[in-house]
Amino acid sequence: MEDGIQLSNKFKLKNDPLRDIIVSKEPAKIEELGGVAGIAEKLLSNIEKGLCEDDAALKEREAYYGRNEFPEAPAKNFFVLFLNALKEPILILLGICAIIEIILGVTISHEGASGWIDGVAILIAVLLVAGVTAGTDYDKDKKFRALNSVKNDRKVKVRRNGSMVVIQIANVQVGDILLLDTGDYVPADGLYIEGHAFAVDESAMTGESDSVKKNKNKPVLLSGTQVSEGSAVMIATNVGFNSEWGITYSKLTLPAEDTPLQESLGNLAKKIGWIGMIVAVLTFVVLCIQFIVSEKDNWEWDKAQEFLRFFTLAITIVVVAVPEGLPLAVTLSLAYSMKAMLKDNNLVRHLAACETMGGATNICSDKTGTLTENRMTVTNIWIGGNYIPDALETEIPKKSNKQLLDWLSNGIAANSGAHLKMPTNASDRIEFIGSKTECALLVLAHKLGYDYVKLRHDSKILQVFPFSSEKKRMSTIISESGTPRIYTKGASEIILGLCVDYIDASGNKKALGAELQEELKSTIEKMANEGLRTLCLGYKDLKEVQEESTVAPDDNLTLLAIVGIKDPLRAEVPDAIRICKQAGITVRMVTGDNKLTASRIAADCGILTATAGEVVMEGPDFRKLTDDQLDAILPKLKVLARSSPSDKHRLVTRLKALKEVVAVTGDGTNDGPALKAADVGFGMGIAGTEIAKEAADIIIMDDNFASIVQPVKWGRCVRGNIQKFLQFQLTVNMVALTIALVAAASGYGEPIRPIQFLWVNLIQDTLAALALATEKPTEELLQNKPAGRHERLITPLMWRNMVFVAIYQIAILFMILYAGEQIWGLPDLTLLERTRANVQYTILFNTFVFFQIFNEINCRLLNNDWNPFRGFFDNWMFSAILVFCIAAQVIFIEVGGDALSTRHLNVAQWFACLGLGASVLIVHAFVRLAIPVPDWDWLKYNNKKVFGSVDAEAGEASGSDEVDLKEKDDKK
Fold first, then answer.
1. Which residue, among 290, 183, 261, 171, has the nearest Cα to 228 in the 3D structure?
2. What is the pLDDT of residues 877-891, one digit of tens each?
3. In this structure, are residues 510 and 531 in contact, taking their beta carbons and an 8 Å threshold?
4. Are strands 220-221 and 346-348 parallel, antiparallel or unpaired?
5. Strands 662-666 and 680-684
6. For labelling alongside 21, which of 197, 221, 558, 841 has CA 20 to 30 A away?
7. CA 489 – CA 554 distance, rounded (Å)
8. pLDDT tens-place string over residues 603-625
């Protein structure tokens, strides 16, 4: 292998002719460099063995050609985010008011040297709010960039040092020999070497929707495109920044889209903001009129500053009323849940999936690899006229002819695109690369003493007909001793129907009579009843090959063998199914296996139970049903066997038409439409094709159904956290707006000053969002029914809690406002004195803040539980924010002085404020336990309750009487 200096001298990247070749797509220029073989030589690669380099040489190659990573938008700078936060119109208006107040306070204020303090305090508060907003945005950007780095991590198959290995897409090097199958993304620019029925969807790069066939005459492959059919081997010529996709991607700036929940909460925030605007205007007008009336006989121009103070208060009320913390709470909760879900083997690709999964009412799951281990093993076989249930490697040669075993192994090796990675240690297991079913067959050939790599290499492949979900089979034509022969494997009942004879134990060809056909069908049924997946393998010698034909000549086959493949059920799946049912979610199995195999696995994992009326169907019967017939059957349909992609898609769309929230799992290219149609699509991270992953909203990294329980739990947690924040936010708004307006209208001025409102705004919008949005999910969430499609965020239970707690707070604050002088023996205040810092208003403000601090604890509950402290210390951020708010409030009151419009409080006054604030815990407990949840008739939608307590039934559209499928068929 040439060293790095020779590599650099031999192939100068800056003057690289390959760059022009790839862009211009001119095969003639490729031929000038000696064709694909010549280019491979110039890249110091080997078409047969791939890159034969050690780790150090690979790193040197990567340093020279670049890493196969696409450019990312630069990270957001905190200072830029801070400036963006300051561009908020309301903050700009507040800042302007503060600056004017500072100027007036210094120049004409009758308060002398302290006239500027209010303005400076407000200005500092504005900068603080912008700083906190920028800080949370900066942290959010960091989290999402980290998640995206995982999301873009894919694996590809390459040849290295003569062996097939799987590597991360970022580790693909210039000169790598890659293997591509249907559904894969092309990970780098490169050139076609060899393949079968290979076509690529280049719409992502060219905009043309038709698949483009690739061959030696059309060898150019572009990164970012997708294999639509067939398989091929390619050599990578440009990676990362230098690839076509990298160059295009670097020119894109894609804005992040809001999730549906963020959009709906944004709309809610606007409506609340309008209410705040109306209250602010009324407050401003009332204060101005009162001041003009009270000061008309003692007017001095320096008193004009009061109008600016009133205007500043009005703007501050708008700031407090507009719940900008709602979208922030959603973002924080989603970001927090996404990071936590990644630890639970769930990679979230689309934010909306987190919140949607919380309302899922149906899960349509694959069988292989999701409910089972996807560790296929051939355990039973019919061969040479004999059925062998076990002890395969020793019994098969005894009951078979050597020629039959040769043909069987040749067919397994040639009619497959899978690979095995043999272990280096005896204790390690064989690693499967590609289709696990094909790998199980390769292991069978290996146990029988055959080297599948040699057999595949010696076979001259003439034509490949890839596996089709519709045809349920795959065929390959090879040249065997100069004679074309087709090998076919697929669904047992289909292939068996195409066979006319078989090879017996002596190696003779015998007719496959009707009696033996029935016997073989019974054998297949027996294996299926044991939960085995069955495959038939056959062959036929051909006279000639129609190279342009797209239909395999697979009729009149000779039967070689029928195999039963065991795929053990995952140990944790039955418990996961039980939890989903307990959570009100209907789980259905959708599989390509036959009815008997599917039913056995479904029964073992708990999808099928002894409940009368449960339906198991096969795709052909499913397709015959009208929509009305299907809608009647759906509530009891638990297993759909021998399904096609269109069957799965139709199942999903009909469930959605019945207002169900549907999640779907899928791993194949053919699952793409159903994954896209579902409310939440789950792609498989291990066995999933690139098309399936691209169509999915969440990727299950371990391909395990049990991992789906976590998104359900986190989805419900996200929804619950937003409801908790709404309950807290709207209570604060009710109290704040009522106090501001009523106090102004009754001649009591500004009991809560602008700077104090800004502090409350900081508590309720940013700190409360951080505290409540990071609450962790509990197991109790899975005891409730799903919210479904129409249940609204603000339930009657929440309205009850908010209204009664707000009434209590308002009553106590009015008592302090109107009777504070008598209660604490304080002097009566004039209207002008009420606009200055005083003890009475400091007590009112202090009590108001402690009401919100303690009510934040109440808002952890969304049900009628009596204990809001359950799991209190599980969320350290909640506890820390609570402690911070209390400490900051003490400093605010005792140190604030004129700057923050506060006065010192004595010990008795502090205990009174704390006691009154804490009393909201008792009031809330009384409301939860003693006052029933209202059942408002006007809160209905489509004749269904869309509001209701957490115990309300959901998903009523799925309800139906039991349906007997046979009775339906008889009627039809």
1. 183
2. 888 888 888 998 999
3. no
4. unpaired
5. parallel
6. 197
7. 10
8. 989 998 877 788 999 988 999 99
- Mean pLDDT confidence for 726-746: 84
Which string of b and e fits 321-339 if b means at least 16 CB within 10 Å? bbbbbbbbbbbbbbbbbbe
DSSP string over 264-313: HHHHHHHHHHHHHHHHHHHHHHHHHHHHHHHHTTS--GGGGHHHHHHHHH
Rounded alpha-carbon distances, angstroms, from residue 664 to 436, 570, 671, 960: 21, 19, 9, 22
Residue spans per domain, the chain: 4-58+156-249, 79-142+265-338+712-780+790-937, 346-372+570-703, 377-566
CATH topology of domain 377-566: Calcium-transporting ATPase, cytoplasmic domain N (3.40.1110)
**Catalytic: 184?**
no
Q: In this predicted structure, what is the pLDDT of residue 970? A: 38
CATH architecture type of domain 4-58+156-249: Distorted Sandwich (2.70)
Burial of 55 (0-12, 13-18, 19+ CB in 10 A): exposed
Q: Decide if 4-58+156-249 and 377-566 have a common fold.
A: no
Q: Which of 970, 946, 968 is nearest to 956 (CA)?
A: 946
Is the Cβ–Cβ distance between 371 and 365 less than 8 Å?
A: yes
Question: Long-range CB contacts (< 8 A, 24+ apart) of 920-924?
Answer: 920/805, 920/808, 920/809, 920/851, 920/854, 920/855, 920/858, 921/854, 921/857, 921/858, 921/868, 923/804, 923/805, 923/808, 924/801, 924/805, 924/855, 924/858, 924/868
Q: Which is it for the CA torsion 595, 601, 602, 603, positive or negative?
A: positive
- Between 959 and 759, the more confident residue is 759
pLDDT digits (tens, 9 = 90+) for 243-265: 777 776 565 444 444 555 656 66
**Contact at 8 Å (CB) between 367 and 589?**
yes
Report which of 889, 754, 746 is spatially closest to residue 814, judged by C-alpha positions: 746
**Distance between CA atoms of 153 and 151, rounded to whole angstroms?**
5
* Residue of 366, 667, 679, 703 marked catalytic: 366
Evaluate if pTM is beyond 0.85: no
346-372+570-703 placed in CATH 3.40.1790.10: no
